[in-house]
Design a protein that fits this description.
InterPro entries (chains A, B): Alkyl-DHAP_Synthase, FAD-bd_oxidored_4_C, FAD-bd_PCMH, FAD-bd_PCMH-like_sf, FAD-bd_PCMH_sub2, FAD-linked_Oxase-like_C, Oxid_FAD_bind_N, Vanillyl_alc_oxidase_C-sub2
Protein name (chains A, B): FAD-binding oxidoreductase
Distance between the termini of chain A: 30 Å
Helix content of chain A: 25-40%
Largest sheet of chain A: 7 strands, antiparallel
Number of helices of chain A: 18
Radius of gyration of chain A: 23 Å
Low-confidence stretches of chain A: none
Oligomer: homodimer
Mean pLDDT of chain A: 95
Shape of chain A: globular
Family (chains A, B): Belongs to the FAD-binding oxidoreductase/transferase type 4 family.
Keywords (chains A, B): FAD, Flavoprotein
Organism (chains A, B): Nocardia albiluteola
Chain lengths: ~525, ~525
């Protein structure tokens, strides 16, 4: 992953001319890309680690695996939120970890935590570096130095159990690496968040990730059978059965712990055979409310497809425009995408049941193509964001979830908060939304907002983000459905779990990380 | 619920003559029932509460709601495990709480906890009193006195949201009370554990209960949307959305906390329309292995029925004998029960998909009757246990869970441990087993063991229980899939979650219950 944008350079592309023209018309931007800085010329803050510390860390993980070079530090400077990327575009020194460590295994992670506890060095666990909430910022907290612990060498598939459908995967495996290892055995995890191509197994667990096929295969936390966690206090091996009544489920305490309570080093996950058949079907609904009710009916009936999403009117229009359908056969209303994956019999049975429910709820089947188009382009949006940022457009996403009965109000409140805040700053936005994940009792809302950048786009977005965070909290939504908390959502955590909930988290942290070295400034207020 | 047996007197019945004859033949017992003690003549340990304490507690919950009379104390003397019931049959004083409190609402529970923290009085939260693991024993721990907090007055349905399919239920509602309140709105919870008729909503949450329809409607913890918990440290309101990435899921810390971390006072649960249709189908498989593989295939395909269970050969024989089929049409092999509940379309679609998979896996459809018979008698087994205990038969159940690949070995090890331990004591048992709950990655095993009682049946069972607990741990099972930990499974908790896991639980307890008044001696080693 490049240091100042999403993904790999070969996928970077300037905006097509017609989009530049559109942006000029709508937002009054010139459409000219800025020139980004040369990686080698970016100043970094000076490493605060002493030679003694570097020698000590080298003893733990090996001298080749303690990196303090400019490139290694720059590539671990933080995540990929829009403010992160805007900060990378600023002149002046970039924040960066004082060293990057590449431990080989669980025991080395344990030893690093022990050393850093003794020496009072902050530790930031790092998977794919795709956080969009400041979750991997190299913050020092109360310490003089911070090291980032890159887990990419924990990349093994172990303990495959095809009968039970479980596989133990190293925390450092990326989504594609994990799928490739599983595919060699005819298996798949089926976890496809937008960060799939770069994010890691450990990161998925640490952030309660949720993939685009969550209606069928579940959230990542649903898939977790066992967790292995290294903490300054020792090792936790959690999960002895598919389900248990042996007290609180401690997996659920470390799932979503975002590196503040321990370093997840291996995850045993539910896997399934690579689907023999995938059925694609796009649907149109007259409006968002009708579409949401239709999705609700199919999920509540226990007939959910594997992928189930619904774009609102604004996103539907833009998606179809991007797919090249401008001037073609216009589809009004809202577009829904379904895929159903599994055996031919399952796809047929579930497809018929879901289709009947969606049709009864006012849906019109559009055929396969729009669903296939969506799948084809589903990891591309972050590249588009980079191209937009380069031409002076502010583009960011955010998400929340609530009950079905509160969904329309939450959507309206979030849209209003974004619109009011940005319009109030003189940059009226375009706000699009889709239902990204569905549950019997509610759904998530995923928003994309686009506006013209002000001279200080970081402050501009900070204002809007705080307005929308407050609006989400006031409207009864969760501050994050699948992006996690990191540094950016921390101001809303006390509202989310209460003062006593925060005290509980602090008590757990004190038990496993008494020195407080793990990922300071994240998650726990 | 009567004090010394399960359930209500009108359901108590002596064993049928043919079963007495069978027991005489197999186990050499006379078949004559013992005469149980008169409730009023049972000596209780003297209440350790001072008049000042009783006055103080009366101020909190009202004088009528602090009960120290013989009957109230006796009815809260503990749960309903076989050792519990055998202890009730012993001469000598019974253990009992020093008082029983009946708080009216959440705030009164909070005030009781505050008072008992100040006065150093242990508190045992009490729902239906159906624990079979010593979870509601009136243990004083390090304190001089213990009060039992009976939550039956927290019996309201509030915040019904039929669109989202959620309902907030008071912790003290029993299963039937909750279903009745929901049925008035055309809704159902669908949580039917064997304790259903007496156990409470709060108890289900506190113990991670799992009902007989878990394949369709999920475990109780799956149903939980929000939890309200009163602790000595204050109130927790947990759960803001159907799913969230806002850090660890603290609901999962208080679900299964068994009254040691707080008192659950209200639970918001996922509910569904009362099923319009129920499809019943019984199946026969040549043997347990074939049946287990069949259940696995249907669950892993995402085509699980609502109820899905499989009896082993021994249980199949006995169940059919009990159903009056002796001498009728003999069914060899293993009996599986399925029900599919929902709309007619769902029952038809899911039924066809499940039937095809079960048939492909070697199952023979037996028609509806055995499934209906099972449903009709599904809450009756504890009454049968009482009748067996009365004629000198030891009868107890226990359960565990593991992955599909480990299921046969775990079953064999548990059966061997029970058989060896009891045969070694001169009382060879009959051991029966069924798969009670299924998951894509594994299943639970529910064992029933029957043997002749020795002169000290409590010690006899204690020996067997410890042997089988060790066998479960050694074979990789969880010490409990749905009975919870209480006092009886506590010796295996450190093995289950590790030393550090125990330290985490203790840290949480210290944060919410610094004086340690809540349910001493349970769950946390």
């Amino acid at each position: 992953m490049v240091w100042d944008a999403w993904g790999i350079p070969s996928e970077h592309a300037p905006l097509p001319e017609k989009i530049r023209t559109l942006l000029a018309q709508v937002f009054g931007v010139s459409g000219e890309s800025v020139t980004r800085r040369d990686e080698g010329s970016v100043p970094l803050r000076t490493s605060a680690l002493s030679q003694a510390h570097l020698a000590g860390l080298s003893t733990v993980v090996g001298p080749d695996q303690v990196r303090t070079d400019h490139r290694a530090r720059l590539l671990h400077a933080g995540g990929k939120s829009t403010p992160d990327l805007l900060r990378r575009r600023l002149d002046g020194p970039q924040d960066a970890p004082d060293a990057v460590l590449f431990p080989a295994d669980h025991d080395q992670v344990l030893a690093v935590l022990e050393y850093c506890t003794e020496q009072r060095i902050a530790v930031v666990p790092f998977g794919g570096g795709t956080s969009v909430v400041g979750g991997v910022d190299p913050a020092r907290g109360a310490f003089d130095a911070v090291v980032t612990l890159d887990l990419r060498r924990l990349d093994s598939l172990t303990d495959l159990d095809p009968v039970s459908g479980t596989a133990t995967l190293g925390a450092g495996l990326t989504g594609p690496q994990a799928e490739k290892l599983l595919a060699a055995h005819g298996l798949s995890l089926g976890h496809f968040p937008q960060s799939f191509e770069f994010a890691s197994i450990g990161g998925f667990a640490a952030t309660r990730s949720s993939g685009q096929a969550s209606a069928g295969f579940g959230r990542f936390d649903d898939m977790i059978q066992r967790l292995r966690v290294a903490t300054p206090g020792g090792t936790l091996d959690l999960g002895r059965a598919p389900a248990s009544a042996a007290g609180p489920d401690l997996r659920e305490l470390f799932s979503g712990s975002e590196g503040t309570l321990g370093v997840i080093t291996a995850v045993t996950l539910r896997v399934h055979p690579v689907p023999a058949t995938v059925g694609y079907q796009a649907w149109s609904f007259p409006d968002f409310g009708a579409g949401a009710a239709a999705l609700r009916s199919v999920v509540q009936a226990g007939a959910a497809p594997t992928v189930l999403r619904l774009s609102d009117e604004a996103e539907t229009g833009l998606n179809l425009a991007r797919a090249g359908d401008i001037g073609g056969n216009p589809v009004t209303g809202c577009l829904a995408i379904t895929t159903i994956e599994g055996s031919a019999a399952h796809v047929e049975a579930r497809g018929a049941e879901a289709a009947a429910l969606l049709t009864a709820a006012g849906g019109t089947a559009l055929g396969e193509q729009a669903a296939r188009d969506w799948e084809h382009g589903r990891f591309a949006a972050p590249y588009l964001r980079d191209a937009l940022l380069d031409v002076g457009i502010l583009c960011e996403t955010l998400e929340t979830a609530t009950s079905w009965s509160n969904l329309a109000e939450l959507k309206a409140k979030v849209t209003a908060a974004l619109t009011d805040s940005l319009a109030g700053q003189g940059t009226p936005p375009l706000v699009m939304c889709h239902i990204s994940h569905t549950y019997p009792t509610g759904a998530s809302l995923y928003f994309t907002v686009v506006a013209k950048q002000l001279d200080d786009p970081i402050a501009q977005w900070h204002t809007a983000k705080h307005a929308v965070g407050d609006a989400i909290a006031a409207a009864g939504g969760t501050i994050t459905h699948h992006h996690a908390v990191g540094a950016d959502h921390r101001p809303w955590m006390t509202g989310e779990i209460g003062e006593l909930g925060v005290r509980v988290l602090r008590a757990v942290k004190q038990a496993v990380d008494p020195a407080g070295i793990l990922n300071p400034g994240k998650l726990i207020p």
